[in-house]
Specification:
Elements (H helix, E strand, L loop, with lengths): L3 H31 L3 H15 L3 H18 L16 H15 L6 H14 L8 E6 L6 H9 L5 E4 L4 H11 L2 E4 L10 H9 L7 E8 L2 E8 L4 E6 L4 H4 L2 E5 L18 H17 L16 H17 L3 H13 L7 H13 L4 E3 H8 L18 H9 L6 E3 L7 E5 H11 L17 E2 L14 E2 L15 H5 L6 H7 L37 E6 L2 E8 H9 L5
Parallel strand pairs: 1-6, 1-7, 2-3, 3-6
Antiparallel strand pairs: 4-5, 8-10, 9-10, 11-12, 13-14
Helix pairs in contact: 1-2, 1-3, 2-3, 4-5, 4-10, 4-11, 5-11, 5-12, 7-8, 11-12, 13-16
């Protein structure tokens, strides 16, 4: 016979055994539950909690933590970064990052500086309100775009390199992971995808970096906000849409010239990159608060959007110290300073001015005829090889608030056309006319090159007079009287006699010797076409100690011809 005491002892032993078995199976049970779908887990959670002897909310937390740990284990290996245990000098870190890019890739002037600064921006972007895209552009294949992207992948935080992505995948991935997004082969799918371009554009400014989509929640469709705020680099052959390039720091890559030697990039992570990631993580932690709401001194030659793009990078350069404040400003002028290249709309506005001549009105048909008369301008082949139409003309001008009206020209019949007065404000805003000097005017009205950099921004920079009208070159223009007197009846001797303390200084010269022209403001003739108009870029070339200077449109021709003009 089993008495009550023995029965009670037996039940207690069974309970202890069950509890011990439950404790031993807890990790396996939580792991099993973590692999279930959300619906299936909801069906089993109460019974499983009772079996394990815990509250349901406790089990929910354990399952969430298990799922999170499994997700972290599935991330890319280079995402796991242990910050350096020692403080990091910002200037030395930037020097090391710059050296990595120069070690593997032939880059145009200023590009290595911009890339190094952008890497640290990717680590600290949440401190600011603007995140510029890093856009790598080349005229053709095999120019190093993918190699740069691979280096960025192993230097930036939580980086993901993708050769294609859709609009919905873009914002959902950013919302879930917050990566540094590196988009390669963008020429194959971005330019004609307006939805994707709009989502990318939204991520430039933190306050606007959101899209809203309808999602299903418990059988109901509800609006939800998705973030698009992430550092982004884009590689493409030829240009992107204007709206993307306007939000970007653009690096024009070219094919490596014969004889140029760089280390072959083995497309995998290495100890060098791992050490730089560790240092970047420590530097960003130590200096994050100092980069909140930055307001560095900006070069005057940058337009408003370019200044926005460079502001977070210049703040990093100023904080790092050393030579980097000056290097960064020279790089931003080289890569993003105002250039003669115009957007299509501004180009049209400028071409409409001479088309009007002295007339107060012009018919649309006559304006189209004037625009298409010059075969070197885009209007003769604007319409897929055919001349621009009146409808296309009206659409482009309409973006500036200029619309066609009925006009009556002095010669010819009346019809739809445009009035000069409607162009005046747009001309003043986008392409102001340069006031020419009369042949016998004084030297005081000679034009001067705008000052892109003030002395407070880069030491030694001052206003620089424009090159002499006769096309001669002079490294130091301040004491060359022929510069000021070209086109007048003055001789150098008479000019020298008049050069006294009472002689007014030319406009744009604050007084004194401005010194040599800063290197970033010099313009060199193109070694391919010989033209001196437009911006040229310098490239290392075998047998030429000073390298070669090429227009953007001449670079591919030069490299393809192996340096034969």
């Amino acid at each position: 016979m089993v008495n009550d005491h023995d029965l009670s002892s037996f039940k207690q032993a069974c309970t202890l055994a069950d509890a011990e078995e439950a404790r031993l199976s807890e990790p396996d049970e939580v792991a099993r539950l973590a692999k279930l779908s959300k619906l299936e887990y909801d069906r089993q959670r109460e019974e499983a909690a009772a079996h394990l002897g815990v509250r349901v909310v406790t089990l929910d937390k354990a399952v969430r933590e298990k799922r999170s740990a499994e997700h972290d284990a599935a991330t890319l290996p280079h995402w796991q970064v242990e910050p350096s245990p020692l403080p990091v000098d910002g200037a030395k870190l930037l020097d090391a990052l710059r050296q990595v890019f120069r070690h593997y890739i032939v880059l145009p002037p200023g590009a290595d500086i911009a890339l190094a600064l952008w890497v640290l921006h990717a680590w600290t972007m949440d401190a600011g309100e603007i995140s510029p895209f890093m856009v790598l552009v080349s005229p053709t294949k095999r120019c190093g775009k993918t190699s740069v992207m691979i280096l960025l992948q192993y230097l930036t935080p939580r980086s993901e390199l993708a050769s294609n992505i859709t609009g919905p995948a873009l914002f959902r991935y950013i919302e879930a992971v917050r990566p540094t997004l590196l988009i390669d082969e963008a020429d194959s799918f971005v330019r004609d995808n307006e939805e994707l371009r709009g989502i990318l554009n939204s991520g430039h400014t933190k306050v606007a970096a959101n899209v809203i989509r309808s999602v299903e929640v418990n059988g109901e469709h509800k609006p939800r906000r998705f973030s698009t705020w992430a550092a982004k680099a884009i590689a493409t052959i030829r240009c992107l849409a204007d709206t993307l390039e306007d939000r970007a720091i653009i690096v024009q890559l070219q094919r490596k010239p014969p004889g140029a030697k760089v280390e072959r990039l083995r497309r995998r992570d290495n100890e060098w990159c791992a050490a730089l990631r560790s240092q970047a993580a420590r530097w960003s932690t130590d200096n994050f608060d100092k980069l909140v709401d930055p307001d560095p001194q900006m070069p005057e030659a940058l337009n408003d959007r370019a200044a926005d793009n460079w502001r977070p990078l210049l703040a990093i350069a100023d904080l790092s110290g050393g030579e980097w404040p000056q290097l960064a400003r020279q790089a931003c002028l080289t890569l993003s300073g105002e250039s003669p290249e115009e957007t299509l709309g501004v180009m049209l506005l400028a071409d409409c001015r001479p088309a009007f001549g002295d007339a107060a009105v012009i018919r649309s048909a006559d304006l189209v005829q004037e625009l298409t008369a010059d075969p070197e301008r885009p209007w003769a082949e604007y319409n897929r090889g055919d001349p621009i139409t009146q409808r296309q003309l009206a659409k482009l001008l309409g973006t500036f608030g200029i619309i066609s009206v009925n006009v009556r020209p002095e010669v010819g019949p009346q019809g739809k056309g445009y009035r000069r007065v409607d162009f005046e404000e747009a001309w003043e805003r986008y392409c102001p006319a340069k006031t020419p000097c009369a042949p016998d005017s004084s030297p005081d009205c000679r034009p001067t090159v705008p000052r892109p950099v003030e002395s407070a921004q880069v030491d030694g920079f001052a206003s620089v007079p424009e090159a002499p009208w006769d096309g001669s070159k002079n490294g130091n223009l301040s004491n060359n009287h022929e510069v000021w007197d070209a086109g007048t009846d003055k001789t150098p001797e008479s000019a020298a006699r008049n050069d006294s303390a009472t002689t007014p200084t030319p406009l744009g010269d604050p007084g004194g010797d401005p010194g040599p022209i800063p290197e970033c403001l010099r313009r060199y003739p193109c070694d391919h076409c010989g033209g001196a108009v437009g911006i040229t870029h310098n490239y290392t070339w075998p047998g030429r100690p000073d390298g070669v200077w090429l227009h953007a449109q001449c670079e591919a021709l030069w490299f393809d011809s192996e340096g034969r003009p």
